[in-house]
Amino acid sequence: MPASDRAIELLTAAAEAAHDKKAENVLAFDVSEQLAITDAFLVASASNDRQVRAIVDAVEEKLRVDFDAKPVRREGAREGRWVLLDYLEIVIHVQHDEERSFYSLERLWRDCPAIPLPSPIPSAE
Asked: How many CA atoms lie within 13 A of 56 on its CB side?
């Protein structure tokens, strides 16, 4: 069974929040056929620890305000290299570019269907 409508809504909102904080290479995968514990993964990266934390904070705020959703688990926030937010329906990975390159989650989950996400809106800077 594919990812639920709620999972897609959460992913889309999280991706928008990540894009607002200049996240790079934001991708989503439907892992519902491979994992029983979640429907989808969102993966995003940033060039430094501070930006990783800013993306995580923006995603958490967006999902809390718009969906009354809070992560049941949050790991790695102190280091800011790879933060995992577990919302049960979705799991969000925000990684420093180096960790993203080394662990290559998109390679690991490449057999899972990609979930289309909205393109980032260019800023007027």
From this structure: 29
CA–chain centroid gap for 35, Å, is 17
- Domains of the chain: residue spans and CATH: 5-108 (3.30.460.10)
Q: What does the DSSP 8-state code read for residue 21?
A: T
Token pair in block for residue 83:
């933060």
Bridge partners of 25? none
Sheet holding 40-46, edge to edge: 24-30, 40-46, 90-96, 82-86, 73-75
Q: Write out pLDDT tens, residues 55-100.
A: 999 999 999 999 999 999 999 988 889 999 999 999 999 999 999 9
Residue 93 near residue 105 (C-beta atoms within 8 A) = yes
On the CB side of 21, how many CA atoms lie within 13 Å of its CA? Answer: 26
Q: Which residue has the tokens 């420093």?
A: 96
Structure tokens at 15: 């991706």
Give the span between the Cα atoms of 18 and 26, in whole angstroms.
8
User: Phi and psi dihedrals of 84, rounded to 5?
Assistant: -115, 125
Rg (CA), the chain: 13
